[in-house]
Amino acid sequence: MSRADRDQRAYWDGLSQIDPDAAIIDPNDRRGLKNRYLAGMRDEAFRSSLCRHGLDDCVLLDLGCGTGSSTQPLLKAGYSVLGIDISLGLLRHAKVRCGDKHCLFIATDGSQLPIADATVDAAVVYVVLSYLVDDDRARALLESVRRSLKPNAPLIMIEQARTQRRTTEAGLKVQRSRPEWLALLSSAGFKVDSSHILRHGRFPTTPLIRAGWLPPRLWPHISRLEARIAAHTGVLPWDYAEILFEARA
Ligand SMILES: C[S@@+](CC[C@H](N)C(=O)[O-])C[C@H]1O[C@@H](n2cnc3c(N)ncnc32)[C@H](O)[C@@H]1O
Description:
By secondary structure, the chain is α/β, with parallel strands linked by helices.
């Protein structure tokens, strides 16, 4: 395992000591409202993309599944899920959260995915490749995801982007530009069908949700509003954006 992977594993194993929902999105969100909102947006994006592809009751790869927060709703929707993550600490939470029916969790740095070629119906990814700062490593991981997918099977990936590439979190994370993400996917052999912004990192309603000023019944309307505004503005020069990439193996 490389030094970068060891640092990455230590970082996530450290976070696994805190609340499993806080660990994977925003560790400082003490009330957990912002994390619930973002997880809901992620889950809805995965659900509607899988529906658009006509996929139900099939085998999914949840790459970088962490504490199983994204895996659990997929299991409830009837999918079988293979969850892969670099952190054993986070995967322990995933096992407790999801049990062992229709799911399997494997700890790996992702360089060699323990999956036979052309066996998976779709892969979902939420902010994982942003933690592979080195483009060659990110490409190698995407290539092994592509090999595990059946021909033409979808990759549904949400990652963070900026107008200019920026490394954050003491060098552990990179926010690539949208063209860089698209080039990375193409160079790993994916055919990209679409990319659209789901939300901006500093959208004004997010701190209000976090403070409890906007009740959960309004959240679906707010997330639709975020996506609609983002479709017009594109990635803003002062903020990062979460982009949904849909590609095929
Ligand atoms: C922001 S968290 C997202 C977790 C999960 N996708 C979710 O939505 O709840 C990023 C995840 O990527 C995992 N990760 C980072 N580098 C990885 C690698 N090389 N291989 C597999 N997982 C990795 C981390 O351990 C962490 O669980």
